[in-house]
């Protein structure tokens, strides 16, 4: 009887150890933005989580949401999700590939036609990594100047993961 009890106890410890190892490799991060002025407001929230497979490889998911309002001009709501992939050939350098899909909803207070559409983006990036913080630039290879929410395909970034 004590052998059976010892076996069950060992199985429980093993299951807890596997579960705790998973969460030890998960890192959380994201971004928050706020901008306002005379008749203008912009706010954004973009949480993300990655799983660090090794010191070189990580992958994860991100969500994003933003709202912009310009008095007597327009308002815009953008909601999206992304798949994140990072590779660091050496600890100081991080390359990235991110696929993002956004739902863009623009409402104009003038003669423009309101818009609601999906916009895909595929970013390839290169950054300098200092541990929890990476600073760099990324390029949208699917960039479309008519539909993108950004003025240019290049965008600087700062990533923070804990």
Short summary of the structure?
With 162 residues, the chain is mainly beta. It contains one helix and eight strands, in the order H-E-E-E-E-E-E-E-E.
Please name the CATH topology.
Answer: Porin
Q: How many strands in all?
A: 8
What is the CATH top level name?
A: Mainly Beta
DSSP helical segment count: 1
Written as H for each helix and E for each strand, in order along the chain, the element string is HEEEEEEEE
- Fraction of residues in H or I helices: 10-25%
Shape: elongated
Beta content:
over 45%
Can you walk through the features of this model?
Helices cover 14% and strands 63% of the residues. The chain has an eight-stranded antiparallel beta sheet with strand order 1-2-3-4-5-6-7-8. A hairpin with a 4-residue loop joins β2 and β3. It is mostly beta strands and 162 residues long. It contains one helix and eight strands; from the N terminus they run αββββββββ. It has one domain: Beta Barrel (Porin), CATH 2.40.160. It is elongated. The longest helix is centred in the N-terminal third of the chain and has 23 residues.
What labels describe this entry?
162 residues, mainly beta, Porin, eight-stranded antiparallel sheet, 1 helix, 14% helix, elongated, disordered N terminus
């Amino acid at each position: 009887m004590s052998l059976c009890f010892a076996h069950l106890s060992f199985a429980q410890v093993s299951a807890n150890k596997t579960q705790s190892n998973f969460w030890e490799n998960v890192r959380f991060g994201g971004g928050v933005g706020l901008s306002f002025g005379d008749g203008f407001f912009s706010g954004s929230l973009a949480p993300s989580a990655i799983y660090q497979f090794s010191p070189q490889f990580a992958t994860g998911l991100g969500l994003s949401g933003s709202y912009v309002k310009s008095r007597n001009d327009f308002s815009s709501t953008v909601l999206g999700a992304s798949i994140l992939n990072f590779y660091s050939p050496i600890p100081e350098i991080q390359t990235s590939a991110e696929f993002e899909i956004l739902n863009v909803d623009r409402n104009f207070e003038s003669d423009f036609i309101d818009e609601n559409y999906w916009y895909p983006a595929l970013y390839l990036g290169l950054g300098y990594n200092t541990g929890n913080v990476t600073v760099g630039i990324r390029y949208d290879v699917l960039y479309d100047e008519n539909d993108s929410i950004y003025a240019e395909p290049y965008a600087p970034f700062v990533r923070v993961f804990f």
